[in-house]
Design a protein that fits this description.
By secondary structure, the protein is α/β, with parallel strands linked by helices. Helix content is 35%, strand content 24%.
């Protein structure tokens, strides 16, 4: 099948990409066809390994050995991208087809100012600008993506995550390409920053009139942003069509699974409340965890303002700490884990001050309070296999007296989170997918029989279906094992799905608290309303911004009171003082 050469936009036919490995040929992309017109937004969705990013890399001429494009045509306004030499492609990247990466911090040069990185594209494509013209062009591009001209003189580390991502957009559109490819551009951003970045991306695409491919696994984001959707699985396109039609009536079972895996505020079932502590040691009425006037400051910045609460030891529950980046939620988690020392107040675990424990109390605390971190890629020592990773805590806490007993613990840890022990224990972390690593982190925590788990954004970097699996693991920890969970997240939809109680943090203060049905179904504080309104709903008919424009809502938050929390209701097991 030959793609039409005269039609405007991108036309792809019979694209195949194969990787040659010791175990045989891997068909990463297996004969796909699609077309996208100028001005159209097309979403490519699928789980890790489905072939969506490989498709984008092929269109960018960036498939490296042992990979190879073995078949296909990809014509962009008549130019066959797949037939270009490396030298020719260097002249077309950024000018004809441009790429917005997933990890802005890893994509920007840390030792070059943003201005220099924007102008680099002009120099590489034979269009150097005079100093005055360069400054005007940089200022114009930054303003186009909603950043002040002063950002041009800044280094990447001086920018927030959302600002870095918008700077990447400015670089990508500098030469007004015909095709923009955005690869998971908001995967690690909070919902408000994500909404800001996607509004920016949509606006600049309209300005330059390019076609846009959005790669991701977030079906809610696709519903809010794209016009058409391509669903990929195992290198093949299993469904392609108008986004409204697909969401209303998905034809492929895999598409239905992806849609149904998105957490929804229309809760399918309320979280069950455990009534015992799962057979673990009683606390004799002592709170499991207590904050007594706890605050934390870094220099003049007050990351967490005075906060007091108690978490009971005999009534396990999931308490969600929600808020965008910089709200103080990760600082709160670090204080619980003893990684930080409070500037004022006391953090106690079973009556012991977390920062003043004796050796025996510290050992008990380290076993009973476990953590699951956000990044499944940076949470393992790359030089050791998984059996070593799991054996270390068993040895440290005296939980295995023999290799056979340790192996039994490891097998049960893997099985508890749906991993095949035979395919897991003897591998290195880099040989596992991000979702497998994240589930193993939960399994490792369960293995040492904790009483409290601090889960800091544990599902923000995994596929939607794996997200639901991990959330199910956390729910099981509470209901079957009697483990309480502090669930730190910017995603109110997942908090709604599993939490018994929600604390909304803004600028280090709790601004609203209560059960999910109250706080999220009927938010009262402007900040909570903004968080809810910024959730990417898996419904193309329900758009971001029901409460007004993002600027209007942000202004309303800036004028709101953050000194007195709106405590809507209480639950047995957790009390906010």
């Amino acid at each position: 099948m030959n793609a039409p050469a005269s039609s405007a936009g991108l036309h792809v036919a019979d694209l195949k990409v194969e990787y040659y490995t010791d175990d045989g040929i891997v068909k990463a992309v297996d004969g796909i066809d699609f077309a996208i017109r100028p001005g159209v937004r097309m979403g490519f969705v699928g789980e890790s390994g489905s072939g969506k990013t490989t498709t984008a890399l092929a269109l960018m001429g960036m498939i490296e050995s042992p990979g190879k494009v073995t078949s296909g045509v990809a014509r962009l306004d008549g130019l066959d991208l797949l037939s270009l030499s490396d030298a020719a492609f260097e002249q077309h990247r950024l000018a004809t087809v441009s790429y917005i990466p997933q990890g802005a911090m890893n994509s920007l040069n840390p030792v070059a100012r943003i201005e220099a990185q924007i102008l680099e594209g002009f120099r590489d494509h034979g269009a150097p600008l005079a100093r005055a013209d360069a400054q005007r062009r940089v200022a114009s591009l930054l303003e186009q993506v909603g950043l002040p001209p002063a950002v041009g003189r800044m280094f990447p580390h001086e920018l927030s995550g959302g600002m870095k991502q918008r700077a990447c957009i400015a670089i990508a559109i500098a030469l007004r390409p015909k095709l923009l490819i955005a690869d998971e551009p908001t995967s690690a951003l909070d919902v408000i920053t994500q909404r800001r970045v996607m509004e920016t991306l949509g606006r600049v695409q309209d300005d330059i009139g390019s076609a846009l491919i959005l790669i991701g696994h977030d079906m809610g984001l696709m519903a809010q942003f794209v016009d058409e959707m391509v669903v990929m699985r195992d290198g093949k396109v299993v469904e392609h069509g108008d986004v409204r039609t697909i969401f209303a009536n998905p034809s492929h079972p895999y598409t239905r699974t992806l849609i149904e895996s998105v957490p929804s505020l229309e809760r399918r079932s309320k979280p069950s409340r455990a009534t015992t502590n799962g057979g673990q040691a009683a606390t004799n009425g002592m709170p499991l965890l207590s904050f007594d006037g706890v605050s934390k400051a870094y220099g003049q910045v007050e990351a967490l303002r005075p906060l007091s609460f108690t978490l009971a030891g005999d009534m396990p529950c999931v308490v969600a700490i929600v808020g965008q980046s910089g709200s103080g939620k990760t600082t709160l988690g670090s204080l619980v884990l003893g990684f930080e020392t409070a500037t004022n107040g006391r953090v106690t675990y079973s009556g012991d001050d977390v920062n003043r424990m004796g050796r025996a109390a510290v050992n008990r605390f380290r076993r009973e309070v476990q953590a699951v971190f956000q990044d499944p890629y940076a949470s393992y020592n790359p030089f050791y296999k998984i059996d070593h990773v799991l054996t270390v805590p068993l040895k440290n806490f005296g939980m295995a007296s023999s290799r056979e007993e340790a192996l039994d613990h490891m097998i049960r840890a893997c099985e508890s989170v749906g991993l095949d022990p035979a395919q897991t224990i003897h591998r290195y972390a880099h040989q596992m997918s991000g979702g497998q690593r994240q589930r193993l982190m939960v399994g490792r925590a369960i293995m040492v029989k904790p009483r409290l788990l601090v889960a800091d954004e544990p599902v923000s970097m995994v596929d939607a279906s794996l997200r639901s699996t991990i959330l199910g693991n956390l729910e099981t920890m509470k209901t079957e094992l009697g483990i309480s969970v502090l669930y730190i997240t910017h995603d109110l939809a997942t908090a709604y799905e599993i939490a018994d109680y929600i604390l909304v943090l803004h600028k280090g203060s709790v601004v609203e608290a209560g059960v999910p049905e109250t706080v999220i179904d009927d938010p009262q504080h402007p900040y909570t309303r903004l968080l809810v309104d910024s959730i990417p709903w898996p419904d193309p008919n329900r758009h971001w911004g029901a409460g007004g424009s993002l600027d209007e809502e942000t202004q309303s938050v800036a004028e709101a009171d953050v000194t007195q929390p709106l405590v809507r209701n209480e639950i047995e097991g957790f009390r906010l003082a």
